[in-house]
Amino acid sequence: MDVDSTAIQTIDYDTERAKLLIRFVSGERYVYVGVPVEVCRSFMEAPSKGGFFQDEIRDQYPYNRLGA
Questions:
Q1: What are the pLDDT digits (tens) for 1-34?
Q2: For the chain, what is the domain count?
Q3: Which of 23, 38, 46, 64 has the smallest number of CB atoms closer than 10 Å to its CB?
Q4: Is 46 part of any domain?
């Protein structure tokens, strides 16, 4: 899903696997594992997607870089 953010282009969530997929405006893609659905919901509703990412997701969950 496209989002209104200067840092993040899209946010997608796999509910079955609790995986959060993020594409940044730079084109880089990351998958974060074990992210609860409540966190993803709050992320999508946050007025600042970049701020929420920095505070609540980055360095909080294991991740893998998927490339551009």
A1: 999 999 999 999 999 999 999 999 999 999 999 9
A2: 1
A3: 38
A4: yes
